[in-house]
Design a protein that fits this description.
Radius of gyration: 17 Å
Number of domains: 1
Helix content: 40-55%
Shape: globular
Strand order of the largest sheet: 1-2
Largest sheet: 2 strands, antiparallel
Distance between the termini: 25 Å
């Protein structure tokens, strides 16, 4: 389904996107809070992909090591190649990071 853009200067159409319930940083506790604080301190922001698992800390505990292994672990790809793939996928998904 498409919605008309609310800006009267544009007649562009915007597709609906998925909405996922997340734990807001000020409401985070325990493991999720420590992850949020770490990302905020290190990067200045908290990735949405991390937030997407925040209502299930057990899933977050599994996802973080998987991500770290994929991005930073041994592989036939260099770190630069992994980052380039991530950029292309993010761009294809119209993701800003």
């Amino acid at each position: 389904m498409k919605k008309n853009h609310s800006n009267s200067e544009s007649t562009a159409q915007i597709e609906d996107i998925a909405w996922i319930e997340t734990v807001h940083p000020e409401e985070a506790t325990g493991y999720v809070k420590s992850l949020y604080e770490g990302f905020q301190k290190q990067r200045g922001w908290i990735p949405n992909i991390l937030k997407s698992t925040s209502i299930r800390p057990d899933v977050t505990r599994g996802w973080v090591p998987l991500f770290n292994t994929l991005m930073y672990g041994p592989s036939g790809l260099t770190r630069s190649q992994k980052e380039m793939i991530a950029v292309v996928v993010s761009a294809g998904n119209q993701c800003h990071y």
